Amino acid sequence: MKFSTVVTQLTGALFLCPACEQSEPSGLLCTTCITYLSEIVSPCRNCGRPESADVCGQCLQKPPKWDHASLQWHFNGLVRHLIHQFKYHHDMAAGNALFRQWQPDIGDQAHPSIIAVPMHHKKEAKKGFNQAMVLAKKLSDQRGLPLWRGVRRIAKTPALEGLTKKERQTVLKNAFDLNDKPPQAVVIVDDVFTSGATAAELARILKANGTQFVAVCALARTPLA
Predict the structure, then answer these.
(1) Which residues, 6+ apart, have CB-to-CB distance to 130 below 8 Å?
(2) Is the pLDDT of residue 7 over 80?
(3) Considering the domain boundaries, does residue 25 fall inside one?
(4) DSSP H helical segments within 12-155, as ranges?
(5) Distance between CA 155 and CA 175 in Å, rounded?
(6) What does the alpha-carbon distance between residue 48 and residue 167 come to, in Å, rounded to a whole number?
(7) Structural domain boundaries, residue 145
(8) Domain of 157: which CATH number?
(9) Between 20 and 30 A from 69 (CA), which of 22, 78, 217, 223?
């Protein structure tokens, strides 16, 4: 059991940095650990590819199905550790600490709706929560934007880790369904952006049903895309 967990159980409150577990009155990342979050420099506004001049060459040649992307950190080092703690170990302190440092650019639409990348209901029931929904709810509350729950995952797809972009696209084809007419503008929220296959499939079905603008926001971006 983590020392921070013991402290929480004894005191009823968490007053440690969730990264280094040193005393931190806010319970968020300390000023030292914040410097270890590896931010993407000059990201492409379409896919988050680093060191891009506004739009990268790949997106100029083949624009994505969505209209805007905001991916703040590289998925490595402390960012990777905190996301794994949040995603796989239900460490809400780690997730909240990252969220408080997250500054997603949701695009220029006046009042978009927030959508979490949905998890298949059987997987979510087994896991106990959907980390994308946790982030989406927080962003919805922070920005005063509606949370739209009209999309669901109807296919119980295998784990995507380790798959190529093409394999992910094949697995995710027709994996989602809508149970309501979608908003005109949406912001898709996830924890990690890898190949873009999930965002592309969601954007495809949303736009096929009337959505005009789709933004994709995630905490971090892997090097695969």
Answers:
(1) 116, 118, 119, 124
(2) no
(3) no
(4) 31-34, 57-61, 77-89, 92-101, 121-127, 131-143
(5) 5
(6) 21
(7) 42-73+104-221
(8) 3.40.50
(9) 78
